[in-house]
């Protein structure tokens, strides 16, 4: 199967993040978008004594991604972490997606994540007299993922 080369690439700045259908505002960066499977190594001795190593496809792996956004008065993410820390597994699980958009705002590719929960929330360094934006970075773990 040949890959099509007649389409423009997606711009790296055009994306949106949603959690349980609600778009997260002021997102400046998303890292760790990755889908992978386990690799199983099968080593065997053939009848003629020859040693053979094969690589087999394993199960899909779980994973995580990180979102950085401008700091606002919203406590949604830190409240989500509080639910996780209190051990409310059912209440902590959400679905999330990251959509890559083209120049016209249409979806080129969509990463969908199921059974997500927030693992950490971090505020960037605060410096007196600094001119950069205060940001909130949070890491989301997921059980299943799909790219559409």
Automatic annotation (TrEMBL):
Pfam families: Phage_T4_gp19. One of its GO terms (molecular function) is structural molecule activity. It comes from the Bacteria. This is Phage tail protein.
